[in-house]
Design a protein that fits this description.
Elements (H helix, E strand, L loop, with lengths): L3 H7 L2 E6 L5 H15 L5 E4 L9 H13 L4 E6 L5 H13 L4 E5 L16 H11 L3 E6 L10 H14 L2 E4 L5 H13 L6 E2 L1 E2 L5 H10 L6 H10 L3 H22 L3 E5 L5 H10 L6
Parallel strand pairs: 1-2, 1-9, 2-3, 3-4, 4-5, 5-6, 6-7, 8-9
The protein binds flavin-adenine dinucleotide.
Flavin-adenine dinucleotide binds next to β3, α5 and α6.
Length: 286
């Protein structure tokens, strides 16, 4: 199984993000979407872990199975907040033993009730543990518009720089304007970082949903997009079409800028992603 840092060195990557389904029906939908998008021969896929209320327990089994069944790697996201060292060692060892070569090391969100986050608080504390257990390529999260818990822009970039020194690549939170990604990359370069930063692109499917997620992630909409969204709110088909248009526009700008790859958040559906890759001419549809 390939390492993502090697893939990034070899050329511009195309990758898709999925989340672990909760019900048998959702599992069937996920399997159909994953199988469909696998025919586009992505460089890798990733699978979230406990994000947005999704399950933690399913990620391990799905990721280990997908790495065994497909020629391209699937990278598990792994959060450390609220876990004991023993739990993390067990999980990382399971990935290593299944031949998984890539892990996205994340902090996760602190407990909503303000209780003790446990032995691990920051993503940077998880990276040495992952390296101790196996020869993984380790990715980390980067927030172009700064992490919502960062005290200041300068502190966000300083903490990110320290984290990138320990990691092999970064994957961004989604954003709506190329300039945020460009600013992040240029600031990191000015600070001396050479770690590749992969942009995430989110095809919106619901206006209230994307507004909520954008606010939660500390991202912002440009006024022109805000207006386009208001015009389709309540119309699922028009929203999906806008999501595809916006993802294509953003991806084109990012590719023109020279990103190391594109990470499309598939949200366990193939249709929008297929239209986006078709319009970008990224992979001949199989
Ligand atoms: P960190 O890098 O640890 O940073 C968190 C905050 O702490 C930042 O403000 C940082 O500046 C600050 N900080 C870092 N180190 C220190 C230090 N030593 N002292 C003081 N402050 C410090 N969440 C999930 O639950 N599951 C997922 O699958 C998931 N996938 C994600 C994928 C991507 C691409 C991204 C961008 C986010 C994802 N998240 C996921 C969300 C993530 O877990 C949250 O944003 C979380 O709040 C922060 O995680 P982090 O790894 O960025 O944290």
């Amino acid at each position: 199984m390939q390492r993502i840092d090697d893939l990034l060195r070899a050329g511009t990557t195309l990758s898709f993000e999925f989340f672990p389904p909760k019900t048998p029906e959702a599992l069937a939908t996920f399997r159909e979407a994953f199988g469909d998008l696998a025919t586009l021969a992505p460089d890798f896929a990733s699978m979230t872990y406990g994000a947005l209320g999704s399950t933690r327990t399913e990620t391990e089994g799905l990721v280990n199975g997908l790495n065994a069944d497909h020629a391209f790697p699937t990278m598990p996201h792994l959060t450390c907040v609220g876990h004991t060292r023993e739990q993390l060692v067990r999980l990382i060892t399971s990935y290593r033993d299944a031949g998984v070569k890539n892990i996205l090391a994340l902090a996760g969100d602190p407990p909503a009730d303000g209780s003790d986050p446990g032995e691990f608080v920051y993503a940077s504390e998880l990276i040495p543990l992952i390296r101790e257990i196996g020869d993984f390529a380790v990715g980390v999260a980067a927030f172009p518009e700064v992490h919502p818990r960062s005290a200041s822009h300068a502190e966000d970039r300083a903490r990110l720089l320290a984290k990138l020194d320990l990691a092999d690549f970064a994957l961004t939170q989604f954003f709506w304007e190329t300039r945020h990604y460009v600013q992040l990359v240029e600031e990191l370069e000015a600070l001396g970082s050479t770690t590749p930063v992969l942009p995430s692109v989110m095809p919106m499917v619901s206006v209230p949903g994307i507004r909520r997620m954008t606010t939660m992630n500390g991202a912002t909409f440009p006024p022109a997009l805000d207006e386009r969204m208001a015009a389709v709110d309540g119309d699922p088909e028009a929203t999906r079409a806008l999501g595809i248009d916006v993802a294509v526009e953003l991806s084109r700008e990012l590719l023109d800028y020279g990103v190391p790859g594109l990470h499309l958040c598939a949200m366990n559906r193939a249709a929008s992603v297929r239209k986006i890759t078709d319009r970008l001419g990224l992979r001949a549809a199989a």
